[in-house]
Amino acid sequence: MGQGYRLACPEGGEPLLLAAVATVDQEMCAIRDAGRVKARERIAVLAALNLAYRLAERSAPASPVGDAASEARIADLVRRVDAALRDDGLLL
Fold it and tell me: What is the DSSP string of 8-33?
């Protein structure tokens, strides 16, 4: 999102660090472009949470497909997050 940072990494780790930077930048830009959140700090927190969730998802055991109770809970959580994001001032 146009910010530059000086970062250190282990020798030979530059390609992995650059890939991580690109992933974070892409996530932050997607949140910004959605237009729901304006504050850079909030965008950064939401991006971090999204990426951490995806990472946790990879290591979590698969849940049963078609579990109606789980699907209802997920739908409810999505509605609550959408409602919270409507008014950026209420976050954090």
Answer: ---TT-HHHHHHHHHHHHHHHHHHHH
